[in-house]
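Thread: quick sanity check before group meeting

JM: Hey all, I'm pulling together slides for Thursday and realized we never actually wrote out the predicted structure for the chain we discussed last week. Dropping the sequence here so it's in one place. If anyone has concerns about the input, flag it before I start.
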Amino acid sequence: MFKSATVKLTAWYLVILMVISLVFSFAIYNLNYHEVNVRLENLQHGLTDSTVRPRTIALVNFQNEQDQLRMDQSRQAAVQMILALVYINAFILVVGGFGSYFLARRTLGPIEKAHEAQSRFTSDASHELRTPLAAMKAELQVYLRDDNLALDEAKGLLESNLEEVDKLIMLSEMLLKMAHLDYDKLEKKQIDLVEILPSVMKPFAKSKKRFDITTRKQALISGNEAAIMELMSILIENAIKYSPERSRISIRIFERRTMTGFEIKNSGTPISEEKLPHIFDRFYRADNSRTESGKNGYGLGLAIAKKITEIHHGYIQASSTEKETSFTFYLPNLRNLTAKIQDPQL
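JM (edit): ok, ran it. Output follows.
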């Protein structure tokens, strides 16, 4: 689809370019042809006026010869101009063709990427939705065929289906978050990462003894508080989910020049180097072992985290070794940026 669109757009660019080129060529030809004729006529009149006229017949013959010479020179100049313009337009056609194709690719490139991302996202989302629905359908079909279905078995079936419904609700919420981050502008205000960290940690109170926390007294940024809390929560939940029970998890809030950093480290199964660059992609899972029972997810958490940092003009990165896995996001530091504006020498 995009190949044919590229060809069509290239053709349109080239048609527009050639129409403009031909119009200018026609205008240049007319102007130059008129100028050449005027100069030849002036030259002819000058020669005629300076010639001695002893006899009328001789003067008429001389005039005819000059007219014929002027016409020949005018035709010769016209032919030369036409050839020059033909060569120029041929050159423009060739170069413009390549240029038009390049511009068409540049124009359609982002649209093609967005379309591919949307198609991939829709396909992956459909697959993720199909999995719990298929499980629910299979269980219901099995139990409906059992004429001697006991009450306890029916309750177990309902509990199992309820778990699948919870998964669907969680997936729907995450998809809505992604759509919200893609299309809406978030209201921003001054936020202190150190101040909001205890609120972010509340849902993880059962694991609070596992955390080693090192922070500054204050770490001010400009952002949407709900989004930043979601970002921190995603990384904390990810560290808990993919690290051994009772292992230590370290959190550090620091500053680096004009950026504020939030770093979280945990031990556990390392992420391979070839998979590490893709862990922020939607629906991507670095390792099947990282989605075992009790640790399953939809591969959207880190994609949401990346999107939040991008909206706040920051970035997120990850590293993994045999000893530990680290996630760090950086956001512009409000205090340092304000100081830089007030004092240009900083």
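AS: nice. Confidence is low (pLDDT under 50) at residues 288-294, 339-346. Helices lie at 2-50, 56-144, 151-183, 193-201, 225-241, 301-311, 334-342.
JM: adding both to the slides.
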